[in-house]
Amino acid sequence: MASASRTVNLHPANYLPDTLETTTFDIIVIGSGPCGRQVASKTAASGLTTVIIEDELWGGDCPFWACMPSKAILRPGEALAAARMLGGAKELIATNRLVDVEGVFARRDKIVHNYDDQWVVNLSLGQKCTVVRGRGSLVGDKKVLVRNGNGQQKTLTATHAVVLSTGSEPIIPDIKGIETIDYWTPREATSAKSVPGHLIIVGGGVVGSEMATAFSTFGSKVTLICPNSEILPKFEPQAGKLVREALTAQGVDFHLSAKVVEVWKEDDGYTSVKLTTGKIVTGSDVLLAAGRKPRTRGIGLENVGLTPSLEVDPTMLVKPLEGMWLYAVGDTNMRSSTTHMGEYQGRVAANAIVARARGENVSDTKPWSSFNATADNLAVSQVVVTDPHLASVGLTLAEARKRGIDAKEVAVGFNFPGAWVFGEFNYEGWAQWVVNAEKNVLVGATFVGREAGDLLHPSTVALVGEIPLDRLIHAVPSFPTRSEVYGLLLEKWLAMKGK
Ligand SMILES: Cc1cc2nc3c(=O)[nH]c(=O)nc-3n(C[C@H](O)[C@H](O)[C@H](O)COP(=O)(O)OP(=O)(O)OC[C@H]3O[C@@H](n4cnc5c(N)ncnc54)[C@H](O)[C@@H]3O)c2cc1C
Ligand SMILES: NC(=O)c1ccc[n+]([C@@H]2O[C@H](COP(=O)([O-])OP(=O)(O)OC[C@H]3O[C@@H](n4cnc5c(N)ncnc54)[C@H](O)[C@@H]3O)[C@@H](O)[C@H]2O)c1
């Protein structure tokens, strides 16, 4: 069995509620994750006094438990695989396809600063924010109680706004016997100290697919169980299929259209799971990766007449609530659970808070204004760090058509010189645009290919800027680079239009 416990360094002696010199701030932010800190840094920079409350590691999930450690453990396997495509490099790499796991974990520990959060605290202090460790909860309009484990507590008052940025927590599926096993959540996977013999992953979304990629390069046998007919169901079906085929080639077993109905512990310490298909799979460890829900329990929403599922307007103001003082950003509002989109919401919320504090009315702003998180609806971008990467922005073809858009699909492969230099004529990939044919602009894009995540951003820019595709032909990709795929997409689209 792999061990899951971690030591974290919280510096608990510092920044306690009793050390606060005042209890009144212009802005109170609950949660020091990337999204809360984004708001706080901007409100503080504009001269509004801002306090951040945090009851775990300062910095939230992204730097310690989520984005950074997951990408840290994925990158070595990916780099090795990329080098193995190249004659002249592959001969120098051991034929064993596994990474050096101890080295990978040591690098991960460095990247997460050994679970010591002082560097992020220093960032917040440098941004002129007041820092306080404890659990925050709403106790009335603009009133937040901060309480720590030692019984210290203070009630803080906001003169302008309270921002909820409390993040999300894993959904634990309702499976018979689940309470009898010692399962992993994503935290135990990204902070693993040893390698499971056989990891069973429940859920075929982003976490499930990324962790299947990582642990198979560590030498674990991996079985992934997904209730949908294809993995990564939020993306283009062809993209999920390509990632699954690559993982299958790497030795991962898939059970699609299957749910776990029961789990139990075997006498030898292994865990068995029974599927809706009747099959039983036995492994050393189980990772639950079945999605996330807002971390809103126990934060006092009932004290201001709200329920745990928060709805926000385009400025991130919580609806329906009088007084325009409560905002929710990042995973808390579950609009799109990524760091970059949550930080974007944080920027929009900060703009609105600062403007409202000056007495401006910013509630009826147009899409794409600095007070309106329009991209949440039209331009969500994401790179799934599987091997190959799955990078996407905007709408899928099906979503676009559902919205009544005259959407056309343009899809090409990666058979061109810029891709050949990354392998030996064997760089495999798929690029797809979803075009609004009537307006001649992009509404969606997907790229699948090894290390292809960075190909996405030009499409995001074209989509947000609504650049006419005829104009884009003047943006000439350099030769020989993988960006040549843009030329192929454009030529295909112009041919489809008969130009
Ligand atoms: C395994 C994994 C990998 C991921 N990889 C990526 C990736 O590569 N790229 C990407 O963009 N996204 C990734 N994500 C998603 C990303 O981690 C989240 O979207 C992001 O962390 C959300 O930031 P946040 O500020 O909303 O919340 P969080 O980062 O969760 O921060 C919320 C903070 O609030 C604190 N808090 C909660 N309640 C209270 C309270 N009552 N009082 C005081 N403090 C409180 C918590 O302790 C926490 O520190 C990944 C997620 C997972 C699970
Ligand atoms: N690279 C990145 O940007 C990155 C990486 C990891 C996570 N994240 C974010 O973190 C969030 C959480 O990721 P996630 O993979 O947990 O969620 P997800 O929503 O991406 O996928 C959840 C998966 O679990 C399945 N599922 C749901 N109920 C189930 C059940 N009862 N049994 C088995 N499977 C079930 C779903 O069908 C889906 O395939 C995502 O929103 C994602 O955007 C981002």
Question: What does this protein look like?
Answer:
Belongs to the class-I pyridine nucleotide-disulfide oxidoreductase family. FAD binds at residues 71, 136, 166-168, 331. Residues 25-346 form the FAD/NAD(P)-binding domain. By secondary structure, this protein is α/β, with parallel strands linked by helices. The protein is 28% helix and 24% strand. The chain is built from 15 helices and 23 strands. Strands 1, 2, 3, 4, 5, 6 and 18 form a seven-stranded mixed beta sheet that branches. Strand 1 (24-30), helix 1 (34-45) and strand 2 (50-54) form a beta-alpha-beta unit. Helix 1 (34-45) packs parallel to helix 9, helix 3 (67-83) packs across helix 4 (101-111) and helix 3 packs across helix 7. The mean pLDDT is 95. Bound molecules: flavin-adenine dinucleotide (FAD) and nicotinamide-adenine-dinucleotide. The site of flavin-adenine dinucleotide (FAD) has 37 residues, from helix 1, strand 2, helix 2, helix 3 and strand 4.
Q: What is the typical, i.e. mean, pLDDT?
A: 95
Find the structural class using helix and strand composition.
Answer: alpha/beta
Biggest sheet descriptor: 7 strands, mixed
- Outline the low-pLDDT stretches: none
Instruction: Count all strands and give the number.
Output: 23
Helix amount, in percent?
25-40%
Count of helical stretches: 15
Q: If you compute it from the alpha carbons, what radius of gyration comes out, rounded to the nearest whole angstrom?
A: 24 Å
Shape: globular
- Name the hetero compounds present: flavin-adenine dinucleotide, nicotinamide-adenine-dinucleotide
Intertermini distance: 61 Å
How much strand? 15-25%
Binding site for NAD(+): 203-210, 291
Organism: Knufia peltigerae
Keywords: FAD, Flavoprotein, NAD, Nucleotide-binding
GO molecular function: dihydrolipoyl dehydrogenase (NADH) activity; flavin adenine dinucleotide binding
